[in-house]
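Write out the bound-state structure for iron/sulfur cluster.
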Amino acid sequence: MRASSIYVLPCKAGSGYVNITNACLNDCLFCIKRDGAHFYGSDLALDGRPPSAAEIVEDFEAADDVRRLKEVVFCGMGEPLLRYNCVLDVCREIRRLRGQSIGIRVDTSGLAWSKEKRLDILDWINCMSISLNAESAEKYEAMCKPKIRNAYGVLMDFLWAIKVEQVEQDKLNCCFPHVRLTVVDTRETDCIPESGRQAYPPGQFPVPDFDKCEAIATGFGWPLIVKRLFRDSRDDHWSDPALREICLQGITPDLCKDCSNRH
Ligand code: SF4
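---
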């Protein structure tokens, strides 16, 4: 049987996450994919067969039937906008089904901009969360190991294109999605997958300069979110349906005390 392309995280009962692709233009040293495709009791492997837009919509309807979702997030173990048309088709269909009664967020590295310069997705979503990850191209290369040349330059081009679009839409008094930048706090190196951690000697893993990243975000007029690394996402207990159900009801079990700010 095909695994659902919509997964739900403990403590985030109202959010359905779309596992749309495992392909990515980065190979971040902190990426959870390095530890396998098991994530909070869901298998995100996709087995080389990403879901079609029709399958995602079918899975969305099934998940929405069980727990009326407040938000859909395109965020898996890959770059959603590498499947731009699929994201767009799913967004259109979700809007047809739920109108504005549900939020839609896209989490992106911004690097799909190197393949396709399109921003029409902004007409359909409420939030775009973009991984800034570093204050400089050098730091970005050191942590994200991009597979394309000038990745940080591509990211900056993408940010500027969104900013220009935002200014235009503001002039027309049109709605524009919330835009935010994110960095990963890599100081908790024990949470970094071993293959990534081993790229640097102990104590030398690159850490973003949070102040400089904040200044970049402020320069664009957007907030910066500092994300903590996932600590226990592969633990077997997340596959226990009883525990998952407790979490999805919004009850925080003891073992979650340290994880709520990591999701
Ligand atoms: S951009 Fe995201 S999915 Fe891609 S390697 Fe980095 S953390 Fe993983």
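---
Residues 24, 26-28, 31, 33, 77-79, 109, 131, 144 surround iron/sulfur cluster (CB under 6 Å).
The chain has a mean pLDDT of 91.
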